[in-house]
Amino acid sequence: MKGSDAKEGDVLKSLFVASTHDYLLFFSNMGQVFWKKTYDLPEAGRASKGRAITNVLRLREGEVIQTILRVPEFDDESTIVFATRHGVVKKTPLEAYSRPKKGGIRAIRLEEEDEVISVSLAKPGDTIVIASENGRAIRFDEGAARSMGRTSRGVRGIKLREGDRVVGMIVAEPESFLMTICEKGHGKRTPIADYPIKGRGGQGVINIRTEGRNGPVVDVKLCREEDDVMYITESGMLVRGHITDVSAMGRNTQGVRLVNLKSEDSLVAVEIIAAADLERFGSDDDESDSASDALVPAAEAKAEAEAEAPAEPEVEGEDETEEDSE
Predict the structure, then answer these.
(1) How does pLDDT run across 254-304, given as a tens digit for each residue?
(2) Which residue among 105, 119, 308, 326 sits deepest, i.e. has the most Cβ atoms within 10 Å of its Cβ?
(3) Alpha-carbon Rg of the chain, whole angstroms?
(4) What global pTM score does this model have?
(5) Structural domains in the chain?
């Protein structure tokens, strides 16, 4: 299914379902947040190019939107958790972002050459998983990152090895899975329970093996077995399937081939369509049939997984924490 008629050099990065009265928070790579109602955005057809974000938000030169959060209401319990390219994490009450300005407001203070990679909503008792490009991941309790002011810098969430960087963050849920995708069309889903809860600031554990056929990790998402998954390629193609089409497997593996990519195309992101949204807004299965050839059959993927070499012994990095700083 063609998801959008993207311009050359443009890449479709995010896809989600929202009610017309939901609040949308736009978080930029430079640490700014912008606030809109869904009905404020221009409506367009499924395959249209849409309107340039610079015509909707007042962005600075070099500023891009990294995450869009759908917020039904600004409650007192929820917090917003940030993860940056260099492994910094920050938690701030959601209510701190309920009073917007046309030019946006500061959401996080960044160090030089760092940028926001992912932003999520969290509540007390949740655990956070941060994943890196070279296949590492760390899981820690959200309480390990104390609540900070809107303009503070944050603390270290994961200790990155040389040449590595953060590619994604999720807020874990019981009985859920971590969906990991790699640049060359391979990936896997792994039970969240397989990721031990460690102290904030350590090197974490192996999430997926990135050598050889896989290439670097490009995205991670939280999913459940009743959800649908949408793979997004650099050329702007959307490939939709069911989560159960991807067999659950352990952390220290290479995973399986998820999508049959065309020559010179690559995966850039994955989005999860929650079962609750499917029920609330309806499904579009008929329109997805044209993309079925791009999906790898479950039997073929399973055979590929069984044929892969045994995983190498895992050596975990030491856990260490860093003092909070604002």
Answers:
(1) 899 999 888 888 999 888 888 766 665 555 554 444 444 566 554 555 555
(2) 119
(3) 19
(4) 0.81
(5) 23-307 (2.120.10.90)
